[in-house]
Each structure stands twice: as structure tokens, then as C-alpha cells.
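Reply to dn_fold:

You asked what the input looked like. This is it:
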Amino acid sequence: MSKELDELWHDFEFIKSINTAQEFMPDEKIDQLNAIGQKVYEQNGKKLPYLSEDELENLRIRKGTLTQPERAIIENHANVTFKILDALPFPKNLSMVPEYAAGHHEKLDGSGYPRHLEETNLPLQSRIMAIADIFEALTAKDRPYKKPMKLSQALKILSFMKKDRHIDPDIYDLVLKSKIFFDYAKANMNPDQLDDPEGGNE
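and this is what came back:
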């Protein structure tokens, strides 16, 4: 019985550890979760699974906190952004605002959304917004579903995105060189997030 309780506690601790927003959940953790998902217990003469299908689906999320159907709903906000802004009577000099705003989730390699625009079709303004949006999302202290990242960690992730050509490398380099990110960080981030920003210079 002691061995069974130890195993049950180990499974519980594992599930608790993965039930958080993560950068990426590797295959070995998915395999361990699937093994737990196959276990059953008996209650009132019925065999019941440790985890429901809904729980398994949510725990299997490899990156972030959204299932695929949930992600599709969230990603639709870029289309909604365009529709709302495009209906507004912007003056001629601001007529491209809907286009710029709707492109803030596009990536240089065409893997972004909603229109999968590639580098040649992605306006400079959208590229700037993309970096600002990612940095804010990674470091935001008001998201109840995830812990805000430290400054160095956010910049490191952006550096990986630069290498993968998801964000504009020239704009990223300018952000680092100008240190404009630090002004934002001091005004909007928790003090314990403000670690050594050199971690983003890889």
C-alpha cells in the first residue's frame, strides 16, 4: 500500500509540475502523462480513469496554455482587429492602420497568422508591432494564467525568434542597441523581473 501511495503522490506531483504555461513540453513528459492517463481506480464498483479526456487534452498542450480549438478562436482576433479598424473613417494619412495592426502576428517566414504573409509583403509597422506585442506578452505581470518572465528570458526568446526569422532581425538589433526595452521594463514590470538583460544578446 505504501508503494502505491508513493506512486500516486509521484503522479500527482508530475501533473502539478506540467499544469503550467511552459515554453515547450518534450516527448518524454507527454509519454509519462499518457501512461498516467491509462491508469484507473475503482469507485462504487466502477473503474474510472485517473484523468478525463478533457484533462488529458489540456495537459498535453506542448506550448502555452491553449488547445488547438481554443488557439483557433484566439488567433481570430487578428481578423477581428482588421474588420473593426477597417470600418473606421481614418484620414488618408492613417488609411493603412488596419493593415498594420492586423499584421502583428505575422512572421517573416510566412508561418504567422492570419494571412501567412512573408517578408516581402509584411509592412515595417507590422514588424515593429510584432516585436512589441511579443515582448509585452512574455513579460506582462497581469496575466493570471502564467508567471511573467524575467527581462533576460524574454529577450532570449526574441533572439531565438530572430534566428528563426520569425521577427525582423534589424528591428530586434535596434531594440537591443537603443535599450528602449529597459525604459518599458522599469515602468511596467515587477522589480524582480529586472535581471541582467545581456541574456538576450546571444
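The chain has two domains: 2-63, 76-200.
Hope that clears it up.
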